[in-house]
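Reminder: ligand-aware prediction takes two inputs, not one.
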Amino acid sequence: MHYHQLFLTLVAVVFSIYADPSPPVWPIAFQETFNETSTLPVVGTGTNIQGTYYYDFDKKAVRIDRSTGKYDRYCSSVKYFQDTPCTHLVVEGLRYLIFPALKSCCMCCTAESGCGIVKPDWLSDSKFIGYNTTESVKYQVWDKKGLQDNFYWQVDATQVPYAIDQQPNDLMVFDVTSFKKGAIDPSIFALPSYCSKSHTCPLLSVCTVAR
Ligand SMILES: *[C@@H]1O[C@H](CO)[C@@H](O)[C@H](O)[C@H]1NC(C)=O
Ligand SMILES: *[C@@H]1O[C@H](CO)[C@@H](O)[C@H](O)[C@H]1NC(C)=O
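Here is what comes back for the chain with 2-acetamido-2-deoxy-beta-D-glucopyranose:
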């Protein structure tokens, strides 16, 4: 081997060790539970919101259950700050807000108006911030900049989603032991009988702006 070849090989090795990891890509389908701390102006801060995230890109479906909708700006704007469970369900291009304890449901907004689901590569334009090893687990930290920083954390070894930190007012921390990859039971995305696409959310809700 010539010296310059050896040199180039060494350069390649060094780059592969120090290069940033490639941007996160979500599995086509997964589910995972989370805890959330969320602040809504006027309403205040909810610190122990429990939830489950179901994502299935093949079905273009998402369901996000929360133990309370009080601190979610969509749910809260429909039920005026009530402390009652709330689900976002996106199916067939429409986002519904469902209040299971109240057997109440309304169609919020359409995928065409930006209420659809994210693509598995929605983080492709995010910036690698670095690793965080404060806990015994090594996490990758990414920033998908919007108006504010949106930090996304995943476990370095397994690429399992760990946190979505929408600065400054919403932090979802996933329980990585609950992560399940693969197609989701269709019953999860079934529209409750009390939902109808013609029943749109109230005029004075955030949904009207989104529509
Ligand atoms: C890692 O995350 C913790 C919070 O979980 C934070 O306090 C710490 O500053 C972070 N470390 C680095 C190097 O960013
Ligand atoms: C989420 O909150 C529950 C109830 O406070 C707690 O038992 C659980 O350990 C939390 N999970 C995580 C991953 O922090």
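The two ends are 64 Å apart (CA to CA). Residues 67 and 85 are 5 Å apart (CA to CA). We will return to this case in the review session.
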